Amino acid sequence: MWMSTLARFTLPALQRSSSAFACRGLWACGKPGQPAGRSSSCLTLVQHRGHQTLVSASVPMAPHGVRHARALDEERLMEVEWEDGGQSLYPFTWLRDNCQCPMCTLHSAQARKLLLCDVDIHTGVDVVQVTSDNKVSIVWPDQHTSVFDPEWLKKRCFSPAARQAVQEELSINERYYWDSKLHIPTADFQEVLHDDKAALAWLLALRRFGIVNLKGAPAEQGQVARLGERIGFLKLTFYGHTWQVQDKPMANNVAYTSGKLSLHTDYPAMHYTPGVQVIHCITQAAEGGESEMVDGFHTAKQLREEDPEAFQILTSVYVDFIDTGTDYCDFMLQTKKRLISVDDEGQITRISLNNATRDSVLDLPLNQVQPFYRALRAYMDIMNRPENLVTFRMDPGDMVVLDNWRILHGRRSYISNPKRLRHLEGAYLDWDTVMSRLRILRKSVQGDM
């Protein structure tokens, strides 16, 4: 369950007032339970008047002071010794390329003005010194001077641990895998719209768990657009900025029927697949229509452990996807995707799986067809295990937001009643848009970027 998932990474209880808020924490930067960077974010579960909700907190770290700086001319490196005893090395060329003076950097846009063709990539230095206000000053051979803030330098240290910490802070790549025992994280729709701390906690939970249920949205159309405006803007697709999931005659998508939907990610037929999906329940079916969710990263990890050959096939074979019809406009999409994508270090980064739009064109040698089907079936069987599935019924006003690159969702069949038509409204966002808002909120709330 969600509470126990948080409890595995619990922080000491915090007393916020005489009413004794109970706070259990989940570090949002670095490894669970360990801070990373100057100011570590944490997701917290706050108990108040019998309700549980997400909030965010920040644990400030001590500022970094410079004890000594010197040039290592032979290695063409600058060495900085920190007050805490640590050391960092910075290449001369990198320092010149990233000079922070107004001639070299447009600070209003945080953009480099200095052209690389104007940089001597074999440059030395004339003088390195620590200024009276504890900054590092470098005088270059052409007498140009660069001054670097110690916090700026420390964040850009080239050590493996520092680089990993910065990437985690910037992208929040760490995930918390889950199974059927998950209690889906919830947040209040109105609070997310109007309170930056609530919005930050929601987006951090979305990034970590891949799914959050926003409760209390008005049960009427237009609410996903309001959420999209809170983030930035919705992603326009061939189904429009928003789309209505209802029974439709001559349906142009299997979702617009009352039948069962197998576990899937949306829109793998698009080359730029939407990263985040929003589903708002306006009217629920009188009978049936329960939602099913599974953590695609968790089940892919299980496949890798239980059937390495199947995992190797699904991470290497490119599968054709197609989507054809008319909605916002007429469309005919075609693309190739690996069903399970991994990065250079073997970390699972994306699931692209949709049985309805997987094309009948299978661009494989004849002898690889049966092994592919065996691998795909093995993965589907793992996903459909009861111990991996979370099944729940959306109520009117619920708005489920999920990571479409990770979470596979499905729907049980339902009985269509003309007097009570099941109606969901949906929309997509790109992860670029969502992560941009997350970083802005974190800077606004915590001031740590």
Characteristic key phrases:
25 strands, 4-stranded antiparallel sheet, alpha+beta, 449 residues
Word description of this protein:
This protein has 449 residues and is an alpha+beta fold. It has a 6-stranded mixed sheet. The longest helix has 18 residues. The N terminus is likely disordered.
Share of helix, binned: 10-25%
Largest sheet: 6 strands, mixed
Strand order of the largest sheet: 12-13-23-16-25-14
Structural class: alpha+beta
The number of helical runs is: 11
Envelope shape: elongated
How much of the polypeptide forms β-strand, as a percent range?
25-35%
Rg, Cα atoms, Å: 25 Å
Unreliably modeled segments = 1-42, 44-53, 56-60
Distance between the termini: 32 Å
Mean pLDDT: 86
Number of strands: 25
Secondary-structure map:
Elements: H1 2-7, E1 22-27, E2 39-48, E3 51-60, E4 66-72, E5 77-82, E6 87-91, H2 92-97, E7 105-106, E8 111-112, E9 127-130, E10 136-139, E11 145-148, H3 150-155, H4 160-171, E12 186-188, H5 189-194, H6 196-209, E13 211-215, H7 223-231, E14 242-245, E15 261-264, E16 276-283, E17 291-295, H8 296-306, H9 308-314, E18 318-326, E19 330-338, E20 340-342, E21 348-351, H10 366-383, E22 390-392, E23 399-403, E24 407-411, E25 423-429, H11 431-446
Parallel strand pairs: 12-13
Antiparallel strand pairs: 1-2, 2-3, 4-5, 5-6, 7-8, 9-10, 10-11, 13-23, 14-25, 15-24, 16-23, 16-25, 17-22, 17-24, 18-19, 20-21
Helix pairs in contact: 6-11, 8-9, 8-10, 9-10
